Amino acid sequence: MNRFFVVPSQVNQQARTISIVGDDVKHIGKVLRLVVGDLVEVCDGQALEYIGRIDEISKEQVTLSIEKQENIFTEPPIQVRLYQGIPKATKMELIIQKTTEMGISDIIPVMTDRTIVQFNNEKDREKKVERWQKIADEASKQSKRGKIPRIHIPMTYTKALEACNENDLNVLAYEKEKTMGLKALIASLVEITEVKSIGIWIGPEGGFTGKEIEKALSHDVRSITLGPRILRTETAGFAVLSMLMYELGDLGGA
């Protein structure tokens, strides 16, 4: 069943109807060729998801009647933010797509010393983020997410570090770290049940510089090893997120 996202204001609980507007209207009518009477899944991105039956399709909106309503159950119990050193070419798109499928909550593109990608101006930056957000939107629909991850405007490494104290724990994948792995770090945390938000720090091609590592450690970011093999930037985030979701999230069952 096709899945769509709305904001809570598009749900009329009194009339038991949902209005879908924007690009999804064309997608429903022209691409998917759905018709009156077809059922679709709708999520409000916050707490509730619905099964809706199409009552009316116009150029401006699709109106659904609510057939079923229940709480969202597809979101992980922990909030994980990815601080990704911006890689070259389409690697960022792959990272966004796959980490969205796995349950990431936010992706913060970070400009580091070894970041090669440059933005010509603010408009160029916003246009790139708009494309990345669409990739996250589509991946959220495909993977039956309850919420769409937010793709933030790219920020400097320094600003990202200043903002990361909102997380209960921050971990940075560092190839020169030899002793502390993610599993050992989690086991060492006495109040692990209090950890509800985690930041994952991944460098671009070439990794973080020594000065960047020192700066991260001074902000209480914990460095971890991912094992004896060096992972590519587009692989490292998947690996850490998978480990976290297995240990603290909802991968692997109860």
From TrEMBL:
Give the enzyme's EC designation: 2.1.1.193
Q: Can you give the residue ranges of the Ribosomal RNA small subunit methyltransferase E PUA-like domain? A: 22-67
Against InterPro entries, the record matches this protein to: Alpha/beta_knot_MTases, PUA-like_sf, RsmE, RsmE_MTase_dom, RsmE_PUA-like, tRNA_m1G_MTases_N
Catalytic activity as recorded in UniProt: uridine(1498) in 16S rRNA + S-adenosyl-L-methionine = N(3)-methyluridine(1498) in 16S rRNA + S-adenosyl-L-homocysteine + H(+)
Q: Name one GO cellular component term.
A: cytoplasm
Q: Which SUPFAM superfamilies does the UniProt record give?
A: alpha/beta knot, PUA domain-like
Where would you find this protein in the cell?
A: Cytoplasm
- Any one GO molecular-function label of the UniProt entry: rRNA (uridine-N3-)-methyltransferase activity
Question: Which terms are listed as keywords in the entry?
Answer: Cytoplasm, Methyltransferase, rRNA processing, S-adenosyl-L-methionine, Transferase
What's a Pfam family in this record? PUA_4
Q: Where are the transmembrane segments?
A: none
Q: What class of enzyme is it?
A: transferase
Every Ribosomal RNA small subunit methyltransferase E methyltransferase domain range? 75-244
What Gene Ontology terms for biological process does this UniProt record contain?
A: rRNA base methylation
Family designation: Belongs to the RNA methyltransferase RsmE family.
What does this protein's UniProt record list under function?
Specifically methylates the N3 position of the uracil ring of uridine 1498 (m3U1498) in 16S rRNA. Acts on the fully assembled 30S ribosomal subunit.
Stored PANTHER family: 16S RRNA (URACIL(1498)-N(3))-METHYLTRANSFERASE, RIBOSOMAL RNA SMALL SUBUNIT METHYLTRANSFERASE E
Which NCBIfam families does this entry report, sorted A to Z? PRK11713.1-5, RsmE family RNA methyltransferase
Protein name according to UniProt = Ribosomal RNA small subunit methyltransferase E
